[in-house]
Amino acid sequence: MDQAGLTNEQTEKVLQFQDLTGIEDINICRDVLIRHQWDLEVAIQEQLNIREGRPSMYAASNDVRAPQVINDRFLQHVFPARMASGRDGNGSSGGFTGFLGYFLKYVFQLCYDTFSSIITAFLSVFRSDERIVTDPLGDVMNFIQAYREKYPQHPVFYQGTYAQALNDAKQELKFLLVYLHSDASNVQDVQRFCSETLSDHSVIDYINRNMLFWGCDVSSPEGYRVSHSINARTYPVMVMIGLRVNKMIIVGRMEGHCPPEELLRRLQVVFNDNEVWLNHARAERLERSLTQSLRQQQDEAYEQSLRADQEKERKKQLEREELLRAQQAQEDEKRAEQQKKEDIARLKIDMASRVPSEPSQDSPDSISVVFKLPSGERIERRFQSSSSLEDVYNYVFCHPSSPDTFEITTNFPKRVLNTKDSQSSMTLKEAGLKNREVLFVNDLDA
To answer: Is the peptide bond before 413 cis (omega within 30 degrees of 0)?
Structure first.
């Protein structure tokens, strides 16, 4: 088995299907599973239905259209009724005379069949004796029941309409063997064919293993319609239909009674000569399935690659947005800082007018205060003893070298000169400050 394109799970299912169904050709097992979307349970049930003669799980309704069947004698093996009678018991011909007689009869019969087909087609233009088919499935089931009661041993009949059988044969790439039964003509041959040939175990086994078997009585509307479609004139008659170049073609025609060995030989000849077309169809179907599977895998790989690219692009977009947010935050922070500095600068200008003027050195109420800034710079300023602590704070705040946020403390004992709340109006005298007092300015942002 060519395992190209099959996973381990699919290979295991093929082996399980072969073990459970007993189909020798493992390629057929693979094809059946592919057509059933690798559903092992459904594929096995379908094979059991076919073997037991039950309608396919996928057979359509009774009014399904049957695929067109090409009935061309140049494309089929024809085994007329004279062929069996022209042989002796050992299957050998009766010499040159017998062969010449058979050849002349065959040529005459071919000409007669062609002429009668033309006459029949011409007459059908002016009259229609076609029976109305109202219950094709009922016609088939009634025939199977009646046949089973009269001939218990027989191949498994397909329990469905002719259209369903054709569609299943085409779908499953199997041969369809059609048997048309008639109790009104060649009664002795029909009875012998059913009781001896179709009851033979080797014939039953071969048909059940290699093809679908459909039958009907020509006295029913369904059987009558099928007999016209295959141009049946001699009974019993069997035709084998198979797929060839994507068309359903009658590839073998067997007319009249013949012994089991002869029927088996005919079936094998037709089967062997036309199996190559089914194998070719299986190979094409498998190639289409593998191509579809490969295309699906490529599509899935493309989708995964596309999703991966989209995810990468999404992450890049998130990174770009995050970077933009960080840059925006930095710019906002810088603008806020700049705005703060500008606000403080304006505030210093505004508060400079609030600072009382410096008293003269000989003023009796003046107090000289030395401020030590965080930068180490020392500045000295005189204030009136009646000036408030807020005036002192405003002076320091408005000095170009002072920090933006600060506190003023005494040296010893160390205490903070609170310029907020009720203490902001406290005078220097009330705060206990004396002449030549040294105060420390501490940067609160440092």
So the answer is: yes
Domains annotated on the chain, with CATH:
8-51 (1.10.8.10), 132-278 (3.40.30.10), 366-443 (3.10.20.90)
**Non-local CB neighbours of 444 within 8 Å, separated by 6+ positions:** 403, 405, 406, 407
Asked if residue 425 lies in contact with residue 417, where contact means CB atoms within 8 angstroms, the answer is no
- Are the beta carbons of 389 and 435 closer than 8 angstroms? no
Q: Which residues of 257-266 are buried (b: 16+ CB within 10 A; e: fewer)?
A: bbbbebbbeb
Give the separation between CA 401 and CA 52, rounded to whole angstroms.
Answer: 108
DSSP letters along 197-213, please?
Answer: ITT-HHHHHHHHHHEEE
Q: Are 180 and 145 in contact (CB under 8 A)?
A: no
For the chain, which ranges sit under pLDDT 70?
1-5, 35, 50-64, 82-131, 419-424
SS3 content of the chain, % helix, strand, coil (to 5): 55, 15, 30
Can you read off the two tokens belonging to residue 27?
A: 């390629």
Q: Report the pLDDT value the prediction gives residue 91, as an integer from 0 to 100.
A: 37
Q: Does the CA dihedral 193-199-200-202 come out positive or negative?
A: positive
Q: Are 417 and 440 in contact (CB under 8 A)?
A: no
Tell me whether residue 285 is exposed, middle or buried, using C-beta atoms within 10 angstroms of its C-beta: 0 to 12, 13 to 18, 19 or more. middle
Rounded (5°) CA angle 257-194-180? 75
What's the burial of 222, exposed, middle or buried (CB within 10 Å: 0-12/13-18/19+)? buried
Helix (H, G, I), strand (E, B) or coil at 417: coil
438 DSSP β-pair partners: 370
Say if strands 437-443 and 366-372 run parallel, antiparallel, or are unpaired: parallel
**What's the pLDDT tens digit per position in 214-233?**
999 999 999 999 999 999 88
HSE-CB of 241 using CA atoms within 13 angstroms: 29
- Please list the alpha-helical segments (H only) found in 219-370: 221-229, 260-352
Identify whether the C-beta of residue 217 lies closer than 8 Å to the C-beta of residue 223.
yes
Tokens representing residue 221 in the block: 């509307």
pLDDT in tens, 89-110: 333 344 555 556 555 555 655 5
Laid out side by side, the sheet with 366-372 consists of 378-384, 366-372, 437-443, 406-410
Q: How many residues does the chain have?
A: 446
Asked whether the CA dihedral 369, 371, 377, 379 is positive or negative, the reply is negative
Comparing C-alpha atoms, which of 54, 10, 53 is closest to residue 32? 10
Cα–Cα–Cα angle for 213, 215, 218, rounded to 5 degrees: 160
